[in-house]
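Budget justification aside, the reviewers requested a transparent look at the raw inputs and outputs of the sequence design task funded under Objective 1. We therefore reproduce one unedited record. The lines immediately below are the structure tokens for a 268-residue chain.
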């Protein structure tokens, strides 16, 4: 109960007491009434107090209802669409996201370009390395070929000397053994450099390895078979250092009988 309601209740009780006293003392009724009329302060009637109380209650209800509406509207705002500031922040973040995506795409394109360029450079370098190694190998082979080709004539002279010279005494035999030792040492050096002699006798003639300087009919060898190696050929690794000069067998000539010779003589 509020203070105003308490004051109204107190005033009503005092009024009831005055009425009871006046009813018991009729003589004092008029005097009391006069005094009350002249001196009693104005007191609001219960209906007026109730009306005021109802108005206060109504205002409080309206106030609480307005606050409830405002809170509900705030809740609806928070649960519904975002505010303008939130929309601006979201738009800014979207723009930054799109910018970052564009930068990432550009970086990826640069990466792919650099990757392709590096792969191309690696392939070019590998081709250059292989080409350089091949050129180096060809150059080394050419140098060896030219150098050893000049020394092959010395080897040929040693071969001719060994086949033609026949020592007759101890002195000649000592000289023969001396230069044969030098020849053997030269052959060993050729082997270490990758030089190996050809053995074409009895093989079919091959222009890639052999050079035919003579053809001879033969019953022992078939046609196109190497009968003899006149000048030895050599390999340098798996390549030809010098072609072998050979004598190749040809088809045997047909035999002519005496009867054929007589029939072939002209008549006189």
């Amino acid at each position: 109960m509020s203070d105003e309601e308490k004051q109204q209740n107190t005033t009503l009780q005092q009024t009831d007491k005055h009425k009871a006293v006046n009813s018991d003392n009729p003589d004092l009724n008029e005097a009391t009434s006069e005094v009350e009329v002249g001196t009693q302060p104005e007191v609001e009637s219960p209906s007026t107090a109730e009306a005021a109380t109802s108005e206060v209650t109504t205002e409080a209800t309206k106030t609480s209802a307005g606050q409830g509406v405002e809170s509900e509207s705030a809740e609806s705002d928070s649960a519904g669409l975002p505010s303008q500031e939130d929309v601006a922040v979201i738009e800014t973040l979207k723009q930054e996201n799109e910018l970052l995506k564009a930068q990432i795409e550009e970086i990826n394109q640069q990466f792919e370009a650099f990757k392709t360029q590096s792969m191309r450079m690696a392939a070019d370098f590998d081709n250059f390395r292989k080409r350089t190694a091949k050129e180096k190998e060809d150059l080394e082979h050419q140098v060896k070929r030219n150098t050893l080709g000049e020394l092959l004539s010395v080897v040929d002279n040693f071969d001719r000397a060994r086949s033609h010279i026949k020592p007759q005494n101890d002195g000649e035999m000592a000289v023969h053994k001396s230069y044969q030792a030098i020849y053997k040492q030269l052959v060993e050096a050729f082997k270490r450099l990758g030089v190996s002699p050809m053995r074409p006798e009895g093989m079919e003639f091959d222009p890639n390895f052999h050079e035919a300087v003579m053809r001879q009919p033969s019953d022992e060898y078939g046609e196109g078979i190497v009968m003899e190696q006149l000048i030895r050929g050599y390999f340098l690794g798996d390549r030809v250092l010098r072609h072998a000069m050979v004598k190749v067998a040809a088809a045997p000539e047909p035999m002519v009988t005496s009867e054929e010779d007589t029939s072939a003589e002209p008549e006189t």
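Residues 70 and 200 are 116 Å apart (CA to CA). The chain is about 65% helix and 10% strand. Computational costs for records of this kind are itemized in the attached budget.
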